[in-house]
Specification:
Elements (H helix, E strand, L loop, with lengths): L4 E9 L5 H24 L9 H15 L4 H23 L13 E4 L4 E3 L3 E6 L2 E8 L8 H6 L4 E11 L4 E10 L2 H10 L6 E8 L4 E5 L3 E5 H21 L2 H35 L4 E5 L4 H4 L5 H20 L3 E5 L19 E3 L2 E3 L6 E3 H20 L9 E5 L2 E3 L5 E3 L14 E2 L2
Parallel strand pairs: 8-11, 8-16, 10-19, 11-12
Antiparallel strand pairs: 1-5, 1-7, 2-6, 3-4, 4-5, 6-7, 8-9, 9-10, 13-14, 14-15, 16-17, 17-18
Helix pairs in contact: 1-3, 2-3, 6-7, 7-9
The protein binds zinc ion.
Zinc ion (ZN) binds next to loops.
């Protein structure tokens, strides 16, 4: 029984202002493929057949530096060229006439690391952060590939491509769908949490600045915007209540709904990005600080902040479950006072709301980013102590912007993450 794979073409609704990001991603992706093809074709006489590993070690750093692509897309570009070169070399050996592969068709390869596939939309990695595109699904899908495979939970997304149709200026996802056997589904949900490695993504939540900051240096959501909307709403509500008419009362009602919807949309978007970040870094766990008593603990926290934080955690928990990622809460004690570099903990460490300066080792970084790394470490410690220390325990690590850190403080640079390679402490701004 071979894998049953079906390709389904679905049109994407790309926001106007993000089309250019996809075009630039395609240009840089093809650049990686063509650079690799030239390199591989040039050394086909040296190596009998070129391997992906050789190409990656020869070209990865260079291409990562020359493009704005995530690590995963650079790898996909390299691999695509190597596959084409291999079949070219095979044709040459058969005496057929062929030449160095060249890539100019509009196409980008996406897998589960560079894209998050949903049944109604896809989140794609680009040169400018992620872009979320809804599928344009026809009214009646019964009997069509979209209905049979794309919307069918018995099929899962495999490596797919995004393509562009120039005459109609439309983007399409060519989704490759593979049928999942039932026992396979059960296995993958029980496997993921145990046996394997453990990598924790830490999340620091805030009442101003960015709503959520991750231990990988992603700044997600806009708490200032939420506060602003809330204040405007309360101002309008105050003046309306003074007029006291029935129509004023009704518009308060509808505004409540509108505000509520906006807030929920914002929290959904933030939760999607937290999960993208967790998947991009191969995380098995997401750690939040414990939200109990947050209004007394956190300066400036209002009732609606506590509501928003709880709701965000719920969304993340719900979505994480489908990806086999666990969500846990840790005690917030000292997470904002501890230096994530040397461990020195002191209340004077925090110079201002958003700047952390260690009094011992002079380490400086964004205060929320520092806290998120401590939150990741706390969960890691408790996972570690919960593990029966039978020598060959699974490795435990925190997901950081350019690699992982284990409990002994050993840092491992990672090739498979989306972040920059040079510094662990350079926060990455997302749109
Ligand atoms: Zn320090």
């Amino acid at each position: 029984m071979g894998d049953m794979i079906r390709t389904v073409q679905v049109k994407l609704n790309v926001p106007d202002e993000r089309c250019d990001d996809l075009h630039r991603t395609k240009d840089q992706f093809l650049y990686c493929a063509n650079t690799t093809a030239e390199w591989a074709w040039g050394c086909q006489n040296v190596y009998s057949i070129t391997s992906k590993q050789k190409a990656e070690s020869a070209l990865y750093d260079q291409l990562r530096g020359e493009t704005e692509l995530t690590a995963n897309l650079v790898q996909k570009g390299i691999r695509r060229a190597i596959e084409a070169t291999k079949s070219g070399v095979a044709r040459l050996k058969n005496g057929e006439n062929t030449s160095q592969p060249h890539f100019d068709a509009w196409s980008i390869v996406y897998d589960k690391r560079s894209a998050t596939f949903h049944r109604d939309h896809v989140s794609l990695s680009t040169v400018n952060g992620r872009v979320e595109c809804d599928y344009i699904i026809p009214d009646d899908t019964a009997g069509t590939p979209i209905g049979e495979y794309l919307l069918n939970e018995d099929y899962e997304f495999r490596m797919s491509t995004v393509q562009y149709d120039r005459p109609t200026e439309s983007f399409y996802l060519h989704a490759r769908m593979r049928r999942v056997e039932r026992d396979e589904q059960e296995q993958s949900t029980t496997d993921s949490s145990d046996a394997k490695h453990r990598t924790v993504l830490g999340i620091d939540l805030n009442v101003d600045g960015s709503l959520a900051v991750t231990s990988t240096g992603a700044f997600i959501g806009n708490a200032d915007e939420m506060n602003h909307r809330r204040r405007e709403f309360e101002k309008t509500r105050g003046s309306m209540q003074q007029t006291g008419t029935r129509s004023a009362h009704l518009s308060i009602q509808s505004m409540n709904d509108r505000e509520h919807r906006w807030m929920q949309d914002e929290l959904h978007r933030a939760s999607n990005r937290i999960l993208d970040e967790a998947r991009d870094h191969d995380c098995t766990h997401v750690a939040f600080e414990n939200l109990t008593d947050i209004r007394n603990r956190m300066a400036g926290a209002k009732r609606f902040h506590a509501w928003a934080f709880r709701r965000l955690c719920q969304y993340v928990e719900y979505k994480a479950e489908m990806s086999g990622i666990e969500v846990a809460q840790v005690s917030p004690a000292y997470t904002s006072q501890r230096c994530s570099s040397c461990g020195f903990t002191h209340e004077n460490n925090r110079r201002s709301k958003h700047q952390f300066v260690c009094q011992k080792c002079a380490y400086q970084l964004n205060a929320d980013y520092n806290a998120s790394k401590n939150i990741a470490r706390k969960l890691l410690k408790s996972l570690h102590s919960g593990q029966k220390s039978s020598g060959g325990g699974a490795p435990c690590q925190c997901a950081l912007s350019s690699g992982t850190l284990n409990l002994n403080g050993e840092f491992h640079a990672s090739v498979n993450t989306t972040a920059e390679g040079e510094s662990t402490d350079k926060p990455r701004l997302q749109s």
